[in-house]
Amino acid sequence: MDENSSNERNYRKRRGIFFPLLLLTSGVLLLLSNFGYLPGGFWGFVELYWPVLLMAAGLDGLIRGNGITASVLIIGFGGVLLAGNLGYIEISAWELLTKAWPLILIGMGLDIIVGHRTVARSLIGLFIAFLLIAGLVWVADFSLPGSVKTQEFNQNYRQESSLILNLDRTAGSIKVKSGSKSDSLVKARLNLLKNETVEPVIQQNADSTEIDLEDNKTLFPGTSRPVQNLAWEIAVNPKPLLILKSKIAMGENNLDLRDLNVKELVCETAAGRSVIYVSETRDSRYRISGATGQISIHVPAGAPVKITAEKAIGALTVPSKYVRENGFYKSPAYKSGAPAIEISVELPIGAIQVVEYSTTL
């Protein structure tokens, strides 16, 4: 009896390895980054390999005896997220988190029911954990048939001189690109869930049109489908002066504004990724923001560009020729008071990357 009690006390007093391992790994990576041996820098490495933290947390739970089912499930969850980041499965970390996070709650609940006091119960918990991981892999690789519907939208071009386009989604992705100089002002293919609806709102004046495409905001985050299946694909006529507002709570904003006559862009991605190809139009304003994730901005080479960036935790990279002055970055072609592309970026947690693209064919 006393021996059993002693073993149980020792079992409960096992120390975890998560925080010591986190400190050790962070120190090594920072040292490698400082000496230039880590491509992409420390935060670039973290951006890609952060799911390893989940795997370490799960291993820590096993060592501390916090429950086999939930701990093994967290390890598997981190492994699948890492595979997504490395491109081995066609799903990103953010997509998987929005879909499969309830599995962790299931694992925790089963751990409480099964417990870990006997070998038999531990084996049962381990078996359940592997079943849940198998379900996680299934969620990552497959889509349920019939769960996505398509809605077409087309607004005729009336020779408007300006267009205001407002896009607002709960989860998924928004893809915008230049369309043809045809009879269409805006042409869209909207891939939606069965419980997701969009009612376009159109306001027209003599020489301008405003279009609102907004979903019904009733989606529960765990019900979202993969981004590649839930994309809004929108083509915009390149002639009118464009004011674009694109907002998404969780997912991806992919806005290719090359060849478009952009006056202003407001892009908000609360959690996820924003990829912006900036138009060559000068005297334009871009406001790009998010809470956590990644922002990638492609600017035309040789253009006058001014960038103001606000970040708390994360990496910021700009072209090597850009100069920091008075709290902002400027390209070699930028001159104060002259028309320029002005970009404001805000991302408290994550990575901000600014690169140049060639404007010659």
TrEMBL record:
Entry annotated with the keyword Ligase: no
Is Thylakoid one of the keywords UniProt gives this record?
no
What residues form the membrane-spanning segments?
16-36, 70-88, 123-140
* Location of the LiaF transmembrane domain: 18-117
Matching Pfam families, A to Z?
A: LiaF-like_C (PF09922), LiaF-TM (PF22570)
InterPro entries linked: LiaF-like_C, LiaF_TM
Keywords, A to Z, come to: Membrane, Transmembrane, Transmembrane helix
Domain Cell wall-active antibiotics response LiaF-like C-terminal per the UniProt entry, residue ranges: 248-354
Protein name according to UniProt: DUF5668 domain-containing protein
State the organism of origin: Leptolinea tardivitalis
